[in-house]
Automatic annotation (TrEMBL):
Gene3D superfamilies: NAD(P)-binding Rossmann-like Domain, UDP-galactose 4-epimerase, domain 1. PANTHER family: NMRA-LIKE DOMAIN-CONTAINING PROTEIN (PTHR47129:SF1), QUINONE OXIDOREDUCTASE 2 (PTHR47129). This is SDR family NAD(P)-dependent oxidoreductase. Residues 7-181 form the NAD(P)-binding domain.
């Protein structure tokens, strides 16, 4: 069985390839990337597969049995990009698609979920057997905020006491590898998140514990949070988008206590303390 991985040179993709190589022969793995030269260090075959160039997708997918479609990071364009991937997969005879979606994509108030809903629908409509990996937040998403909190003396946000079941990318990679290398996942949708959720106040407390500094969590308005992000160099449009996510997060959009992720991998997710330590020592 040949496994093709789109976005294999991305942060999640690299972790998946590395873990997958411990489960299956490297010769059974194909990195599907925009620039094959950048995949030279992965130790697997690489083919050009550009979401915006359908011809490259059809050539790259030939002989691929299982396709792991790691969602594009081109927000606003990825719905169409993923549809192109699905069309090429169907045309070339891909037997199975595993897709990285977002936690509770069908109900999430986070605006990113809309493109994931479109993508899931396209995959279902293709008739190709599928598995949806609805990944929750990565704790790495808070890396800049954690470093900024240490430097500035406070952690800022607008998510109030919303519970966030985030865990490091390596845990999500392990879940993907489990699904790619075992049977019984066709037609399944997995809501993937940390075993234990945290609030931003609890994140601030953990930062304080590890640094020995008193770092409180300061909840601000969405507008003020966006302005604060922009003042630290985040492009204004992106800053408003990030700040806007805080509203559904406060309402529970990133909470899940099913422990589906750890059930898939057979081990607990990474504790918050370990995730914070990794960020602080990076």
């Amino acid at each position: 069985m040949t496994i093709g991985i789109t976005g294999a040179t991305g942060q999640l993709g690299r972790l998946i390839v590395a873990q997958l190589k411990s489960k299956v022969p490297a010769g059974d793995i194909v990195a599907l990337v925009r620039t094959p030269a950048k995949a030279a260090d992965l130790g697997v075959a690489a083919r050009e597969a550009d979401y915006t160039k359908p011809a490259t997708l059809e050539a790259a997918f030939k002989g691929i049995d299982t396709l792991l479609l790691i969602s594009s990071n081109d927000v606003g364009q990825r719905g169409a990009q993923h549809e192109a991937v699905v069309a090429a997969a169907k045309k070339t005879g891909v037997k199975r698609i595993v897709y990285t979606s977002i936690l509770h994509a069908d109900t999430s108030g986070i605006d990113l979920a809309a493109e994931h809903r479109t993508s899931e629908a396209a995959i279902k409509a293709s008739g190709i057997p599928y598995t949806f990996l609805r990944n929750g937040w990565y704790t790495e998403n808070y890396a800049a905020g954690i470093q900024g909190a240490v430097a500035g003396g406070a952690l800022y946000g607008a998510a109030s006491d919303g519970k966030i079941a985030a865990t490091p990318r390596t845990d999500y990679a392990a879940a993907a590898v489990a699904v790619l290398t075992t049977s019984g996942h066709d037609g399944k949708t997995y809501e993937l998140a940390a075993d234990k959720a945290f609030t931003l106040a609890e994140l601030a407390a953990e930062i304080s514990r590890q640094t020995g500094k008193t770092i409180p969590y300061t909840n601000v308005s969405v507008a003020d949070y966006a302005a604060g992000l922009a003042s630290h160099g985040v492009p204004e449009g992106f800053a408003k988008m990030i700040a806007g996510w805080e509203v559904p997060i406060a309402q529970g959009a990133l909470f899940d206590d099913s422990k589906t992720l750890s059930k898939l991998t057979g081990k607990p997710t990474t504790p918050l303390a370990d995730a914070v330590k990794a960020i602080l020592t990076a």
